[in-house]
Specification:
The structure is a homotetramer. Chain A is an alpha+beta fold. In chain A, 28% of the residues lie in helices and 41% in strands. Strand 3 (75-86) of chain C pairs antiparallel with strand 3 of chain D.
Amino acid sequence: MSAVVNEDAEVKAAHFDELIGTEWISSDPDDARVRLRFRDDLRQPFGLMHGGVLSTLVESVCSAATFAAVSEQGMAAMGQSIEVSFIRPITEGGAEVRAKARHRGRTTWLWQAEVLNDEGKPCAIAKMTIAVRPRPDA
Amino acid sequence: MSAVVNEDAEVKAAHFDELIGTEWISSDPDDARVRLRFRDDLRQPFGLMHGGVLSTLVESVCSAATFAAVSEQGMAAMGQSIEVSFIRPITEGGAEVRAKARHRGRTTWLWQAEVLNDEGKPCAIAKMTIAVRPRPDA
Amino acid sequence: MSAVVNEDAEVKAAHFDELIGTEWISSDPDDARVRLRFRDDLRQPFGLMHGGVLSTLVESVCSAATFAAVSEQGMAAMGQSIEVSFIRPITEGGAEVRAKARHRGRTTWLWQAEVLNDEGKPCAIAKMTIAVRPRPDA
Amino acid sequence: MSAVVNEDAEVKAAHFDELIGTEWISSDPDDARVRLRFRDDLRQPFGLMHGGVLSTLVESVCSAATFAAVSEQGMAAMGQSIEVSFIRPITEGGAEVRAKARHRGRTTWLWQAEVLNDEGKPCAIAKMTIAVRPRPDA
């Protein structure tokens, strides 16, 4: 049993959201949120926050919030497609993603999300489809 | 002069592609490529490579290859939108992105890209628009 | 003067929105709207409203509302990209698109839109980028 | 039996592809194609072919070619999402869509497509996801 706990802890410590510093705020399907503080190693070559960081945050919050809602029924959630439009670069402070599930189907959930900077200004908007599938272990 | 070199080195060391381990292979607009080795800290909670890593690779190669082509005219390149469809999870080995510029306009470049695993099987396909704008310093 | 009127009328009579029956409701960038009544010749082979009709409505309202806002500055508006996710088929009644400009830039406008059926239920959500360019004749 | 034929004919005559003039060329998943001749009633207000016509053609060819491949297994095919990037306006002649199924899964097919003008120049590129579901009547 403790092995399982250790294994879980290790997995958590190793995963990508830990690497970039994702802070989990809410997995409410009507207002799911994650946040992240800027760090130098999140920049692209011109010094802006790399768009891939924003795409990662969007995918993380949509996947995690879908999974939180469907896991009790023995289902898993996995990104199927993501579309992000970048509006305003982020150069300091942080980023917050707010996402809302617009469709909660049996096989797919469809999300709209926006990325805001520390002043609450929109920096990107996104649409993401999460596939919902039976869990192999469930 | 050495200050500039140091500054550049520092910027390079700090940026997001260094963090995730992007290897630059080609910035040829007809066959631009980056590659990356799997590491535990690139996983999402179920152990697969996080989709955000793939989105990051796509954005990095499209942005860098556009910039390589337009920088001599004093232009900068910045991600405007990205769309990624995930086909097959990556659980080990690595990922390679191959991208082709389908349109090379005055204000935008439009790219198609695919992500392959180590066996050459498609794991994601993507479309990305890069905005081309005058460089403030040019 | 009457020649201009006639010319305009002819253009209007010939264009695609006339063919499908688009009804123009509002070009307010915060709540732009078009509507359309179902007809048999808008169906796809299974009898549902063809997704292309919905994509057309989204593009029409976003383009027209952008043009309404920028034409006084001598600018034209043209679709650059569209992304539509279909949620619920429409089989009768009608469709209404409601769109909101999330970014109003010098060179691009970025819209979010949703398509509702007659009962107000979401049938599709969309994101559309409109390019804003100088008018040749302005 | 003749009633069925008549019913089919009526459905065909009524549907959206008949209205816009889609010509069916190939439903080969590796090279599916449709074509269309320009007509005045396919224009948008500035005289170009309406982007919605191109989105319609992409959706028609991807849906029809998926259905052709899965119908024998009692499955139906329905558009789930479409993303079109417009490159070059079409003002005369015609449009041809060429599409290739990049993923042929149990629940979704994923297509890449391009729209060419009469000179073979790319006018749009697209990505489309088609949902594959059991047919109610199968």
